[in-house]
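#struct-help
A.M.: can someone run this one for me? Single chain, 283 residues.
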Amino acid sequence: MFIHMKELQFRAKPEKPDPVYARKLQEVLGGQYGEMSVMMQYLFQGFNCRADRKYRDMLLDIGTEEIGHVEMLSTMIAQLLDGAPADQVDEAAKDPMIAAALGGMNPQHAIVSGLGATPTDSNGYPWNSKYIIASGNLLADFRANLNAESQGLLQVVRLYEQTTDPGVRDMLSFMIARDIMHQNQWLAAIEEIEAIEGPIAPASFPRERSVEEVTRQFMNFSVGEESSAGRWANGTLPDGTGDFEYVANPTAYGDAPVLNPPAKHQHSTLGTGPYVVNEGFEK
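D.P.: on it. Structure tokens below:
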């Protein structure tokens, strides 16, 4: 069960309203890498976790914290919208570059949500459950979590650069700190699982059932060979099963495909004239 505490996890009070910035903050609330996404991702990974209970507990700890971050951002957005008139044109939106990107405040804040936050991104696109990953494979999921925290932190840092409001920056500085912690958390969890399973996810599929020779090959599919200088093309494979091989001119393993004609009921063959395949009960 969940129990709600009335106090926010951290301060969330701007110095003054800013409807245009409220729209920007919507991205880290309801965007692809926003707090709603990591909240749902961690919670569903935790709900579905069949591994050692410490992983379930950890996932539900961080997922529940993210509920609090959704609350903080929603509270901040609502306060940034305080007193915004319907025809609000922020000074920042008069800048041609910003106006082109944002077009001022989000009209749905004034029309739909009563000057409150919405479960959408900065363009008003609704949050989508397709943003989240909960596969049941801990190593694959934890790597997805690391990516989510990395992209989320990048966006929050960019938002920090776009405001001088001390109250907004105060809250963002806390979110930045927690994202740093969460990246370290996922790196540590990944390291723990890799020590058991190795770095490939899933580790359970028999390697001999794969086309083993290409598990080692970096294939050059572009003009030039600059990519040959990278670690990904030289030295020992991270999983310890051999060495990387650089293939400068990959060759085809298969033949040129030739597809069968389409089924007649698809009506896709040229030059057939009129016909009906399924006559049914027509008189």
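A.M.: thanks! The mean pLDDT is 93.
D.P.: also worth noting: The beta strands are 217-219, 245-247.
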